[in-house]
Amino acid sequence: MNTQTENKTQEVASKTMRISGSEAVVRSLIAEGVDILYGYPGGAIMPVYDELFKFQDQIHHVLTRHEQGAAHAAQGYARISGKVGVAMATSGPGATNLVTGIADAQIDSTPLVCITGQVFSHLLGSDAFQETDIVGISTPVTKWNCQVTKAADIPKALAKAFYIAKSGRPGPVLVDITKDAQVGELDFEYEPCKGVRSYIPVPKTNPADVQAAADLINAAKKPMIVWGQGVILGKAEEELKAVIEKAGIPSAWTILGASAIPTSHPLNIGMVGMHGNYAPNKLTNECDVLIAIGMRFDDRVTGKLDSYAKQAKVIHFDIDPAEVDKNVKTDVAVIGDSKDSLAQLLPLLEAKSHEAWLQEFKDLYAIEFEKVIKHDIHPVKEGLTMGEVLRQINEETKGQAAIVSDVGQHQMIACRYADFKVTKSNITSGGLGTMGFALPAAIGAKMGAPDREVVAIIGDGGYQMNIQELGTIFQTKVPVKIVVLNNEFLGMVRQWQQLFFDKRYASTEMTNPDFVTIAKGYHIDAKRVSKREELADAVKEMIASENSYFLEVCVEKEDNVFPMVPTGASVSDVRLS
Amino acid sequence: MNEEIKSYTISLYTENNIGLLNRVSAIFQRRHINIESLTTSQSEIDDVFRFVIVVNITEAQAAKIVRQFEKQVEVIRAYYHTDEQTIYTESCMFKIKSALLFEEPQIQNIIKDSNSRIVTVNKEFFVLEKSGRRHEIESLRRDLNVFGIMQFVRAGRIAVTKDEMRVTDMLMAFNNHNN
Ligand SMILES: Cc1ncc(C[n+]2csc(CCOP(=O)(O)OP(=O)(O)O)c2C)c(N)n1
Prior knowledge:
The complex is a heterodimer of chains A (577) and B (179).
Chain A: H1 3-14, E1 17-20, H2 21-31, E2 36-39, H3 46-54, E3 60-63, H4 67-81, E4 85-89, H5 93-107, E5 112-118, H6 134-138, E6 144-148, H7 154-166, E7 172-178, H8 179-183, E8 185-188, H9 207-219, E9 223-227, H10 229-233, H11 237-247, E10 251-253, E11 268-271, H12 278-284, E12 289-293, H13 299-302, E13 313-318, E14 332-335, H14 338-345, H15 355-377, H16 386-397, E15 402-405, H17 409-417, E16 426-428, H18 438-448, E17 454-459, H19 460-463, H20 470-476, E18 481-486, H21 491-500, H22 515-521, E19 525-529, H23 532-544, E20 549-554
Parallel strand pairs in A: 2-3, 2-4, 4-5, 5-7, 6-7, 9-10, 9-12, 10-11, 12-13, 13-14, 15-16, 15-17, 17-18, 18-20, 19-20
Antiparallel strand pairs in A: 1-8
Chain B: E1 6-14, H1 20-30, E2 35-42, E3 49-57, H2 59-71, E4 75-82, E5 86-97, H3 99-103, H4 106-113, E6 117-121, E7 125-132, H5 134-145, E8 151-154, E9 158-161, H6 167-178
Antiparallel strand pairs in B: 1-3, 1-4, 2-3, 5-7, 5-8, 5-9, 6-7
GO biological process, one term (chain B): isoleucine biosynthetic process
Pathway (chain B): Amino-acid biosynthesis; L-isoleucine biosynthesis; L-isoleucine from 2-oxobutanoate: step 1/4; Amino-acid biosynthesis; L-valine biosynthesis; L-valine from pyruvate: step 1/4
Catalytic activity (chain B): 2 pyruvate + H(+) = (2S)-2-acetolactate + CO2
């Protein structure tokens, strides 16, 4: 924005006018630069919808088919665009239906502003129709929340909400607005929030800590980096790449860190964690310095903590001081913005290469390739594998697609085999593991990055958790590509039953409907493939399509995902079969 | 860090926010930490509130939990201190039948020896107030229990720390930065 238009916007925004609370909601959203939001109307939020109707040339409301879909769509939008996602719902069930999405956004640090309607303030506490204490319910899963009962408080509350959602470590916030606040009047003036005195979003990187980190790295013989989503959230991809390349450090990623550095980068050694790659899991317990960047040592990453990287000195870069020493004891903590911290680190590093050490990763990769990868992506057996579908998608999209995965076996396969070339290309529910995430998140992602190819990879189980969002796709004509990898099982749970419960497949086998017919019922182009010969053409047709497209691939029913670090095992006990 | 379970006093300086108590207690609840006592009041700074919370945990837990508190948007600062690092007290009240004052002359001695104070006396009952350490309050309660207590209530610990808190500095820095 040039300064002229900027001044003009400020002028318009600061001119006081007498308007209703609900109009103030919409004007506040517009002032925050929101041009799209996801939601579902109902009694307690109707005045705001009435204003959305009037402002539809400036702000586009997408009617999802369920409030959970609205929350996930807002997440998908936020994850791909780096902007704040906005979801709206009515009181009571509308608000509670958002909760799963809010919890997902909280644990995956996704900036979200949720606006819920609430009953009249004089009815609060009276068990009024559709009254629910959403502020109380959402407290443990929001970065911040509040209830507004006066029209005059709306602009300030929303300004604070946006500021908190996007600053520092991002997260979801919820603003609950009573109906009397919506219909009441105020003198509207919008001033963006610039700070909250009790809140330090970005602690300043301490140069002494960076120096201490550099000293450890420079002295290391076998350094290893594990980066997480903090790199993407901090827009520090370039800085990370420069650090990795200068110091020659083999670098692995957590599921949410995927795509920050291209998959094919020679120092990219793959994913860590329960279904991560063999080499980085095993060698976590051999490195001498472990450098964690913007990741939080989730238990799915560390396995058994008592035997996690005990031999290594640990350096932890993070924006959130609460992450330091939370799970893994660190030797050096660098608290601050990842972009800033890594930029400070770079000049202090000695240029190095660790050829012999890198070779150890390559050797283990060769083993993983022989035992697992080859069979996954170039299978010779009859049944189709999830891995070969990913390989086809890579080929057709040339690695340019954003992959939105759901939760289960297909998710692990998608993250393991997607050939990421562009950052913010892996949109998945990492921390909460929310089945049903992908379909609505893909809608939001495509709307947040219309120029990108967005491919949702979903299991037959998770697909049916938010299948109603096909209605949103039909109505908005958003051209997302949907791939359901149908194994007729809740595959990941079935895998555990096979490995740890003597194959007692309790409630994991599914008799599925005709997914192609369902998609066609929504007028979405749809195809099913169950033979290898048909796969390449089907994927080609899907990617070539200008419209939304549904592709069901009937895959082998009882394939397993390996490598695997069983629950409670050490990362170095990662299994290949 | 020390793994010994000890009594820690957690002090929070916060904005006055209706939902904050909920956030604070949720942080303990999620970690199965029992709150021994919790007091909130105005602090030395206008518009800033202070929580004094006593919990029995290890130092490692205390350090982690304090960081979780500081992460909350409306918490200005959070600290933890051992008993030795604070000056603390508790207070309590007893409601007792007035007749006992005359029937049991021993009660008068107990009151005198315990440094407690009679707040009010009427025909039916009198109210005794005492502040001090937990064990003093407990021993007074045991002594009086023999004669019968109509009501007993004890308030949470209040504590000030021996070292400086520097919250004002922090708020000043914020104001300067934003002006
Ligand atoms: C909402 C929700 N309920 C239950 C689970 C537990 N769960 C994890 S993976 C999984 C199976 C997923 O099956 P499907 O969607 O068919 O994918 P697949 O593993 O077969 O690829 C289940 C039930 C979950 N993660 N989320």
